């Protein structure tokens, strides 16, 4: 197809009247574009359902429409995930759509540095001209993209396919690197595929629930409600240096020293071995590496006395928890960012997986080594973003995988790169070295959330052209862009998300995007068209058509969803967990993996993987004596607050300005008064915040919520070598009165 790249003169031409270079296909589908009609105009006052667009719990919300526009929400009582519950963010999810700082037209930075409104056509021409010129001069490796776990799978897949197969990029990654990469790496190595095994029903059917580095009460409040529905009088054990809301509500809190998890988990495993609290039959039949693990545990410094000293915990408490794990009851082990965001997170996650394998706590109700995912569609990104793995969990490096995908998509095999993409930090290093010149950022706010911001600020200057595609023109990253593309958000577009328990759920368009903002899906269609590779995507003409393609690429994979016929089936089933291969006759609403003890390696066995703990990349010292812990501050704040910050209701529920939590003993020693200003400095930067005095935070550590931009000026660029996930949760800082 030949693309005409002639700009039109009339800047105010409404999108749907464009003729120019748009394909007929796009012109004929205005209803699916942001400017078009809402679905279901026949029933303008109906109620419809849509899965929430914040966290990976994946609650279903009932959306009440008036004149086809959403005006109110309530929690869906019939959905198997949330059973009529929702958290404050869910209840308030319509508010961010109406914010006054929505990006409503594309914006281009002029020579004086100001962002000015332009038409979509001008925006596309600018983006394509600049990116093509970079590609001509430096090759496809000089272009890269950074995306997200917060757009539907159909959009992620389109983006990944467009960038790699259409535009010839090699390197792209997403904010899921900041979040889930460790769990992915751990599962892949241990189970042979990235496969969280559980279903939420396990929260209710477990006798012993162990949460490692997870503050479920505020980060996944509806999962916590599921724990509260457990009628088995469970032991709830929390491993977290802070006495969090979750730790307070638990039956046992182990306030371990930051990053002493690995030694502690090995100590539990050693106690299991020493006391023969093992499921020997399971180990024999379904795992490999047991004798090596045993030797490692018994010969290493993982005895009770050494580990108690190292972790700052009581020997009796450690022993008691090991006994509970080895009790033969239904034990489930859950982890989130206290594990993943670490320089040795993959091994910590695998040490958790090992405990489940050693005790046979997998594949049965109330069990599992269960990574809890963060964003609404982080799980979709893990399978379908086409960044670090080829669509559907395939390998770029395997010829047979490339040929399978090329065949299904009807594209030339050599469109598919034969190498893996760089990870987020490697992409930014590529920018630093001047190898990457053009960057496209979609639905993530790098300038706030990426580790060690000083470095990022310098990187921006290295880029020739940076495009940011966001709902808001005010996000820190959009403010640094050369070109801003206005995107529709959750509620303004169609697609599917995959939640933490592998459940695919529907999200719907219930509101019109403002101005000329378009669904990311349509932006990708436009880019494909203007780039001149629209033909590759002829079949990708609606989210549901793309979903069909995803079901095809998944065939034969552990995540096979070829049995899902269409969106209507997902809705009528109350969401569908993967896998669901074609021909599945009947299936349960709650399904877990590995009921047959068969893992995804050819041997069918899971691997017991271990490695000695490493040194902290930046330990505290006399100059920087505090450990900085970072994480979520409240259930009403979402990440960089571009969305939750727009709700009048939510804003009342948390402090407006940056604060830290510090133990009253440390505060007293330093003469810091409650709510007074303090200066926190690290080797990277210095910030000011108010001090909230609370015994939640242990002596020697401070906690800073990640919702305020300041925090990542302090964090230290260190990464887990297996997963390349940033080590957000431990660096050395100094605190003093302002
Ligand atoms: N309200 C709200 N909910 C959210 C989000 C949000 O922004 N706001 N974000 C979503 C996303 S994307 C994610 S990834 C999840 C994150 O969910 P969580 O991981 O539950 O949240 P965090 O607060 O980042 O980290 C959890 C805990 O790890 C602890 N921790 C720090 N260092 C260590 C350590 O060395 N060992 C152990 N054992 N624990 C440690 C911290 O003290 C903290 O309490 O939340 C999701 N849900
Ligand atoms: N210090 C520290 N830093 C952290 C963490 C931590 O614990 N400590 N946690 C890390 C983790 S786990 C995560 S997940 C990241 C999150 O970091 P980010 O991804 O940077 O955070 P968000 O605020 O969710 O950014 C999403 C962006 O996408 C935009 N957006 C929302 N919906 C859409 C859409 O549909 N389309 C488009 N185009 N744009 C949209 C929003 O306006 C926002 O600008 O932060 C990481 N950073
Ligand atoms: S728990 Fe998560 S999915 Fe459920 S309503 Fe809250 S933010 Fe949405
Ligand atoms: Mo996350």
From TrEMBL:
<keyword id="KW-0411">Iron-sulfur</keyword>
<comment type="similarity">
    <text>Belongs to the prokaryotic molybdopterin-containing oxidoreductase family. NasA/NapA/NarB subfamily.</text>
</comment>
<dbReference type="GO" id="GO:0016491">
    <property type="term" value="F:oxidoreductase activity"/>
</dbReference>
<dbReference type="GO" id="GO:0051539">
    <property type="term" value="F:4 iron, 4 sulfur cluster binding"/>
</dbReference>
<dbReference type="GO" id="GO:0016020">
    <property type="term" value="C:membrane"/>
</dbReference>
<dbReference type="Pfam" id="PF04879">
    <property type="entry name" value="Molybdop_Fe4S4"/>
</dbReference>
<dbReference type="Pfam" id="PF01568">
    <property type="entry name" value="Molydop_binding"/>
</dbReference>
<dbReference type="InterPro" id="IPR041957">
    <property type="entry name" value="CT_Nitrate-R-NapA-like"/>
</dbReference>
<dbReference type="InterPro" id="IPR027467">
    <property type="entry name" value="MopterinOxRdtase_cofactor_BS"/>
</dbReference>
<keyword id="KW-0534">Nitrate assimilation</keyword>
<protein>
    <submittedName>
        <fullName>Nitrate reductase catalytic subunit</fullName>
    </submittedName>
</protein>
<keyword id="KW-0408">Iron</keyword>
<dbReference type="Pfam" id="PF00384">
    <property type="entry name" value="Molybdopterin"/>
</dbReference>
<feature type="domain" description="4Fe-4S Mo/W bis-MGD-type">
    <location>
        <begin position="45"/>
        <end position="101"/>
    </location>
</feature>
<dbReference type="InterPro" id="IPR006963">
    <property type="entry name" value="Mopterin_OxRdtase_4Fe-4S_dom"/>
</dbReference>
<dbReference type="GO" id="GO:0042128">
    <property type="term" value="P:nitrate assimilation"/>
</dbReference>
<dbReference type="InterPro" id="IPR006656">
    <property type="entry name" value="Mopterin_OxRdtase"/>
</dbReference>
<dbReference type="GO" id="GO:0045333">
    <property type="term" value="P:cellular respiration"/>
</dbReference>
<dbReference type="GO" id="GO:0043546">
    <property type="term" value="F:molybdopterin cofactor binding"/>
</dbReference>
<dbReference type="InterPro" id="IPR050123">
    <property type="entry name" value="Prok_molybdopt-oxidoreductase"/>
</dbReference>
<dbReference type="InterPro" id="IPR006657">
    <property type="entry name" value="MoPterin_dinucl-bd_dom"/>
</dbReference>
<keyword id="KW-0004">4Fe-4S</keyword>
<dbReference type="GO" id="GO:0046872">
    <property type="term" value="F:metal ion binding"/>
</dbReference>
<keyword id="KW-0560">Oxidoreductase</keyword>
<dbReference type="InterPro" id="IPR009010">
    <property type="entry name" value="Asp_de-COase-like_dom_sf"/>
</dbReference>
<keyword id="KW-0500">Molybdenum</keyword>
<keyword id="KW-0479">Metal-binding</keyword>
């Amino acid at each position: 197809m030949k693309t005409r790249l002639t700009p039109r003169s009339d800047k105010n031409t409404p999108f749907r009247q464009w003729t120019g270079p748009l394909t007929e296909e796009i012109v004929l589908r205005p209803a699916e574009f942001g400017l078009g009609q809402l679905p279901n105009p026949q029933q303008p006052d109906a109620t419809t359902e849509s899965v929430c667009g914040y966290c990976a719990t994946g609650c279903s919300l009932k959306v009440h429409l008036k004149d086809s526009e959403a005006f109110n929400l309530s929690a869906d009582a019939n959905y198997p995930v949330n059973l009529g519950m929702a958290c404050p963010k869910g209840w308030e999810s319509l508010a961010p759509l109406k914010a006054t700082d929505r990006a409503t037209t594309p914006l281009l930075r002029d020579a004086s540095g100001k962002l000015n409104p332009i038409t979509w056509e001008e925006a596309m021409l600018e983006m394509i001209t600049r990116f093509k010129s970079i590609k001509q001069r430096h090759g496809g490796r000089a272009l890269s993209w950074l995306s997200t776990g917060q757009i539907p799978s159909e959009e992620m897949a389109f983006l990944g396919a467009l960038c790699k197969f259409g535009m010839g990029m090699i390197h792209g990654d997403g904010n899921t690197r900041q979040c889930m990469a460790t769990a992915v790496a751990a599962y892949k190595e241990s189970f042979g595929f990235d496969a969280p095994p559980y279903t939420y029903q396990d929260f209710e059917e477990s006798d012993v629930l162990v949460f490692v580095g997870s503050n479920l009460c505020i980060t996944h409040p509806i999962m916590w409600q599921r724990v509260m529905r457990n009628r088995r009088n469970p032991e709830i054990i929390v491993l977290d240096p802070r006495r969090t809301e979750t730790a307070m509500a638990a039956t046992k809190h182990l306030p371990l020293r930051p990053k002493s998890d690995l030694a502690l988990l090995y100590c539990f495993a050693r106690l299991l071995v020493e006391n023969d609290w093992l499921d020997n039959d399971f180990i024999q039949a379904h795992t490999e590496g047991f004798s090596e693990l045993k030797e490692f545990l018994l010969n290493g410094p993982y005895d009770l006395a050494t580990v108690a000293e190292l972790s700052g915990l009581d020997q009796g408490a450690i022993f008691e928890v090991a006994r509970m794990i080895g009790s033969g009851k239904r034990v489930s082990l859950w982890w989130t960012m206290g594990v993943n965001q670490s320089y040795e997170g993959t091994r910590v996650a695998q040490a958790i997986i090992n405990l489940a394998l050693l005790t046979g706590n997998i594949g049965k109700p109330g069990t599992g080594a269960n990574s809890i995912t963060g964003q609404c569609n982080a799980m979709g990104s893990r399978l379908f973003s086409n960044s670090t793995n080829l669509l559907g969990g395939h390998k770029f490096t395997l010829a047979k995988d490339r040929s399978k995908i090329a065949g299904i998509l009807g594209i030339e095999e050599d469109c598919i790169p034969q190498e893996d993409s760089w990870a987020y930090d490697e992409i930014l290093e590529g920018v630093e070295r001047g190898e990457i010149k053009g960057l496209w950022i979609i639905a993530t706010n790098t300038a706030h959330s990426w580790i060690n911001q000083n470095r990022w600020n310098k990187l921006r200057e290295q880029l020739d052209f940076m495009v940011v595609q966001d709902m808001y023109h005010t996000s820190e990253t959009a403010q640094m862009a050369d070109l801003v593309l206005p995107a529709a958000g959750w509620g303004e577009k169609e697609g599917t998300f995959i939640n933490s328990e592998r459940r695919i759920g529907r999200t719907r368009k219930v509101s019109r995007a403002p101005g000329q903002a378009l669904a990311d899906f349509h932006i990708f269609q436009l880019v494909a068209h203007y780039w001149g590779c629209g033909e590759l995507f002829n079949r990708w003409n609606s989210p549901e058509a793309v979903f069909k393609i995803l079901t095809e690429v998944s065939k034969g994979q552990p995540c096979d969803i070829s049995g899902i016929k269409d969106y209507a089936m997902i809705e009528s089933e109350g969401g569908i967990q993967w896998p669901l291969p074609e021909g599945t006759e009947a299936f349960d609403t709650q399904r877990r993996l590995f009921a047959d003890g068969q893992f995804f390696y050819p041997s069918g066995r899971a691997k017991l993987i271990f490695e000695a703990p490493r040194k902290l990349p930046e330990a505290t010292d006399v100059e920087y004596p505090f450990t900085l812990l970072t994480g979520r501050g409240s259930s009403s704040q979402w990440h960089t607050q571009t969305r939750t910050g727009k709700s009048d209701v939510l804003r009342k529920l948390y402090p407006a300005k940056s604060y830290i939590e510090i133990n009253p003993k440390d505060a007293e020693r330093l003469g810091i008064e409650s709510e007074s200003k303090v200066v926190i400095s690290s080797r990277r930067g210095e910030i000011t915040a108010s001090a909230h005095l609370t015994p939640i935070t242990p002596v020697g550590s401070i906690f800073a919520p990640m919702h305020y931009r300041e925090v990542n000026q302090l964090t230290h660029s260190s990464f887990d070598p297996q997963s390349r996930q940033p080590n957000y949760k431990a660096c050395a800082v100094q605190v003093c009165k302002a």
